Amino acid sequence: MTNRSTNYLFFIAILCLAPLIREFLFGLVSPHHHPFATTEDIVHTIIEIVAMALLGGVLILIDRRFTRDKSKELRVTQAVAIETLASLAEYRDAETSQHLQRISIFVKILGDNLQKDSPYSCYIKSQNNYIEDLVNASVLHDIGKIGVPDAILLKPGALTDEEFEIIKTHTTIGSDILRSADLQFQKRIGTQSYLALAFSIARGHHEKWDGSGYPDSLEGENIPLGSRIVALCDVYDAVTSDRVYKKAWSHEKAVQMIKENRGSHFDPIITDAFLQEAQLFEITKKNYIG
């Protein structure tokens, strides 16, 4: 993607922001149209507005590119734009950048394994560019966290039950944003993008194989395949990472936990693929320490 294209994207984003600037200056852009109570309210609103503006810019830019090149350049433009959206989450949490890099690599490892020889092989091969799209879409799995207050998202101690319920809303916030974006893409271009895959991952990556996850308590293969793959990768990376409220687990302890949750938290087939590729996960983790 050229610098000119990137500049165009941000120019369009600013144009999308313009109608909101007046309301923002008067403190009217909030769920209840009341003045902002805190600096954090202002920051959250800025981030959410920028997210929606960037989505608008993404779609307009893709629409322009589509008229000239319906394949490679369109996909490259879309990929760069999606990475730009994903970077919004990095703004909120310094640990997120390395996390997203690792998740995309983990997803590629499992996707390649499952495509070679698994009950999911035929499905994966039947979908055009499934693994590439899955890797690109995976970086948006936590985009909904832009709607979670810093006081909760970055809390150094244990969350209360009420705070955990708020954290859980990142799945529906993210999926709502991405669903809207995909519908606009379909309207402009006439076909689905991997935003549809990103939508299902954002909503479903905290579902569990036994139906005890959230937000929809989906069970087994009712959970989209991409969500099941990202779910395991996300948990592995979370437990093997240092956080302000906990120390990282060893690779061996993480592998044992995932093995023990085969068929309860995790898809058994995906778990088996992970166990075959566990060494690559460990190497990736060491090379991309956040």
List the keywords.
290 residues, mainly alpha, Hypothetical protein af1432, globular, disordered N terminus
Give an overview in words.
The protein is mostly helical and 290 residues long. The protein has a single domain (3-287), classed as Hypothetical protein af1432, CATH 1.10.3210.10. 67% of the residues lie in helices and 0% in strands. It has 14 helices and no strands. It has helices at residues 3-25, 39-66, 72-92, 96-116, 121-126, 130-138, 150-153, 161-168, 170-189, 195-204, 225-239, 251-260, 268-276, 278-287. Helix 2 packs antiparallel against helix 3 (72-92) and helix 4 packs antiparallel against helix 6 (130-138). The model is unreliable at 1-37 and 60-68 (pLDDT under 50).
